[in-house]
């Protein structure tokens, strides 16, 4: 019998703090920051520069306390189960210590029956300040190099709590996942690990018992049942279930996602989860994921924690974000190593939607100490989570770390390390050993970027994974055309959040580019430099906002299309990043308020199953479906009025999961040639033959009509002249409004209807004029 203990909690500072010693109501699961905010004791940490004034929270000890009634229910055991304590805590019941914790990433179970008493009981969780603990460990084990002057490698806690180049420094404490009392007798299913095959499952079971009587263990799935008996002194068993007729689980775009309920029983205890029958392999040199024997081109987004305070991430919020990922063309998400092992809701959604999950172990961008107490904690958290997540068919890959091997090779770590440990035995020995022991059905990769062996350069693009950050940091985005990688696990380009998101997070009036949070080094200058020759220099805030958002969208679409055109040599491209944890100028496609940036719309097109792209002057057709793509490819060179100067039709057939390169029309283009259009069936792509500022666009002219429709408004724009990168930003008029499409180029005479979702009666004149309706060649 499990009883949640989520009610009646209070929170108070232990010692001096700006809020004083008085207790306030606390929400569990939750965090100190959110409780202080709810009590009106701190300002919104996401607004203006409030983040910088809240550093004292991570340097303060905190005490959570509640009372609950308990009566002897006759069970032999009563365990306090703590699914997530953040982070360094002493747990006591009725004034007596029940246990200690030092790891945000693990579940703890403390036997407390002897500490309970009939009637009222007091449960207290006393958290030590994260900074105090981490700095103490740093002093003990010696400094480790990393990108930030923060001690996150010295505490097993979500690293990005301590700030990142897209996130605030908001160092949390709290009971961040469920806490409750589990009363039981006889036999408890302590661990169930379904190791799934394509045609069955081997269910590895570990039990805990209060006595030595034999116990029968059963497992059933898809109408197949098997059992075994654990005799006196035995605690583990494997139950094999063969299901030869099971339907296979496939990644999104390759087939369905049938799931089957697996039920395991031992005595009176019962465990049930959904599983999917599939196989996952990794071709390490080419770095190809192979599902059910079929190579899969990975179209993915990197995932960061979706909120700075993870207890605030609801199932509904996850469902919205996953919907944005799948609608944006994804078949995969990479859970980045500076974050978390995510919730059951996260992986269950991925199972049902067919999203492959690449799971980093939580190590990122720094050297980590391998000494105690860290080694014991790392092993415990890895065992806990590898076992916990083994049932999920979506989980495709375990990865040892993010960029730590690259750091050791390329970031001048060796001299400051002076021979001290940096995490190597975790990535090369401990973690692969745990995966091989507990979950050999899935591949393990030591880190990313990584080229397949410790003595290889991690930046070698001919094997393994690469991260491409030369573009954002130093190069124009056309540099992506010079890369020929096997698999790109990270690459990104910044853009500001939606207008409504930026305005809600800033008190500036009027807004400026600096009104948006910017955490990246030299980020504002890089945004302007990145415009290069592609777009005009912005003279106003409104132009800055539109041009930098547009440039982000173009840059990332350029990279995705390049890497997809290399299929099957390149077999994956994972964009940095899908989401944000707060309102900020960043690399995300969906901003911290959940609003889709223009980048999202561009990636939806670039990640479509079928793509027409232009590479090195040729047109490349990408067909990532199981069906042949055949028809007549119509190519046309045009001037800026849309008039055809040269054209050619070519019958084409693109095999399933393949690409085809086609040359452009070879006729004399003439000085007026400005555009190339390529059409195949219902799909059209339009390419400019020079950068926008170099083209003599006419001033945009159009007509617009606004009509009410169910759920909002239909905005139909008809072009009189070419309209380059037409975009509609209804959130400027209604922060809750959204639009179904962005960044559409119309030739003269063409129309496009945009569907605006809104509950307000928006002014049609404002909706169809600057700065709500934008295009590159607009007059204003």
From TrEMBL:
Record-linked SUPFAM superfamilies: (Trans)glycosidases, beta-Galactosidase/glucuronidase domain, Galactose-binding domain-like
Catalytic activity: Hydrolysis of terminal, non-reducing beta-D-mannose residues in beta-D-mannosides
GO molecular function, one term: beta-mannosidase activity
Entry EC no(s): 3.2.1.25
Protein name: beta-mannosidase
Source organism phylogeny: Bacteria, Bacillati, Actinomycetota, Actinomycetes, Streptosporangiales
InterPro entries assigned: Beta-gal/glucu_dom_sf, Beta-mannosidase-like_N2, Beta-mannosidase_GH2, Galactose-bd-like_sf, GH, Ig-like_fold
Keywords: Glycosidase, Hydrolase
Source species: Nonomuraea jiangxiensis
Entry superkingdom: Bacteria
Domain Beta-mannosidase-like galactose-binding, residue spans: 9-177
């Amino acid at each position: 019998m499990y009883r949640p203990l989520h009610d009646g909690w209070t929170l108070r500072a232990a010692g001096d703090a700006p809020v004083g010693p008085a207790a306030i109501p606390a929400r569990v699961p939750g965090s100190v920051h959110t409780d202080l905010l709810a009590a009106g004791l701190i300002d919104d940490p996401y607004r203006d520069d409030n983040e910088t004034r809240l550093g004292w929270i991570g340097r303060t000890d905190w005490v959570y306390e509640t009372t609950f009634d308990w009566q002897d229910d006759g069970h032999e055991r009563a365990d306090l189960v703590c699914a997530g304590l953040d982070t360094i805590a002493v747990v006591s019941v009725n004034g007596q210590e029940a246990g200690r914790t030092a790891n945000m990433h693990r579940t703890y179970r403390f036997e407390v029956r002897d500490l309970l008493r009939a009637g009222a009981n007091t449960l207290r969780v006393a958290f030590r300040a994260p900074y105090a603990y981490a700095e103490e460990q740093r002093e003990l084990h010696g400094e480790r190099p990393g990108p930030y002057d923060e001690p996150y490698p010295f505490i097993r806690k979500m690293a990005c709590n301590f700030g990142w180049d897209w996130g605030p420094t908001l160092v949390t404490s709290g009971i961040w996942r469920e806490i409750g009392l589990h009363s039981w007798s006889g036999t408890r299913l302590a661990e169930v690990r379904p190791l799934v095959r394509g045609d069955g499952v081997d269910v590895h079971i570990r039990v805990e018992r209060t006595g030595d009587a034999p116990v029968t263990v059963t497992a059933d799935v898809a109408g197949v049942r098997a059992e075994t008996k654990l005799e006196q002194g035995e605690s583990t068993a494997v139950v094999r279930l063969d299901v030869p007729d099971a339907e296979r689980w496939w990644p999104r775009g390759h087939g369905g996602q049938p799931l089957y309920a697996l039920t395991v029983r031992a005595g009176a205890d019962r465990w049930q989860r959904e599983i999917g029958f599939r196989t996952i392999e990794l071709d390490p040199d080419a770095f190809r994921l192979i599902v059910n024997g079929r190579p899969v081109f990975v179209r993915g987004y990197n995932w960061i924690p979706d909120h700075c305070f993870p207890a605030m991430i609801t199932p509904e919020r996850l469902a919205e974000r996953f919907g944005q990922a799948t609608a944006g063309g994804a078949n995969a998400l990479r859970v980045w190593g500076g974050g978390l092992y995510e919730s059951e809701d996260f992986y269950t959604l991925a199972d049902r939607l067919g999203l492959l999950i690449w799971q980093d172990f939580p190590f990122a961008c720094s050297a980590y100490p391998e000494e105690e107490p860290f080694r014991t904690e790392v092993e415990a958290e890895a065992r806990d989570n590898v076992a916990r997540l083994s049932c999920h068919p979506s989980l495709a890959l375990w990865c040892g770390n993010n960029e730590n091997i690259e750091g050791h090779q390329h970031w001048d770590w060796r001299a400051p390390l002076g021979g001290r440990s940096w995490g190597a035995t975790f990535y090369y020995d401990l973690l692969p050993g745990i995966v091989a022991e507990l979950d050999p059905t899935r591949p393990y990769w030591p880190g990313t970027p990584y080229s397949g062996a410790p003595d290889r350069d991690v930046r070698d693009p001919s094997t393994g994974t690469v991260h491409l950050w030369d573009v954002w940091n130093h190069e124009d985005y056309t540099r992506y055309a010079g890369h020929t990688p096997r698999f790109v696990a990270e690459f990104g380009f910044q853009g500001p959040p939606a207008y409504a998101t930026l305005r809600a997070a800033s008190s500036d009036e009027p807004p400026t580019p600096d009104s948006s949070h910017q955490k990246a080094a030299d980020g504002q200058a890089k945004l302007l430099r990145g415009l290069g020759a592609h777009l005009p220099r912005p003279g106003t805030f409104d132009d800055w906002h539109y041009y930098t958002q547009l440039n982000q969208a173009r840059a990332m679409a350029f990279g995705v299309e390049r890497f997809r055109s290399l299929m099957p040599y390149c077999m994956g491209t994972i964009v940095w990043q899908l989401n944000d944890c707060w309102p900020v100028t960043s690399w995300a496609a969906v901003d911290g308020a959940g609003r889709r940036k223009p980048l999202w719309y561009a990636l939806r097109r670039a990640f479509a199953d079928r793509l027409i792209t232009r590479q090195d002057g040729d047109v490349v057709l990408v067909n990532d479906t199981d069906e042949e793509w055949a028809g007549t490819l119509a190519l046309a060179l045009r001037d800026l009025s849309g008039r055809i100067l040269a054209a050619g039709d070519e019958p084409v057939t693109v095999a399933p999961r393949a690409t085809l390169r086609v040359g452009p029309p070879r006729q004399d283009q003439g000085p007026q040639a400005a555009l190339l259009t390529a059409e195949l069936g219902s799909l059209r792509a339009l390419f400019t033959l020079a950068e926008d500022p170099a083209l003599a666009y006419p001033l945009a002219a159009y007509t617009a009509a606004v009509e009410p429709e169910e759920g909002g408004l239909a905005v139909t724009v008809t072009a009189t002249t070419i309209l380059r990168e037409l975009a509609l930003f209804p959130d400027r008029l209604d922060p809750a409004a959204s639009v179904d499409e962005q960044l559409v180029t119309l030739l003269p005479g063409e129309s496009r209807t945009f569907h605006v979702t809104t509950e307000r009666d928006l002014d049609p004149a404002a909706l169809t004029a600057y700065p709500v309706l934008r295009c590159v060649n607009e007059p204003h």
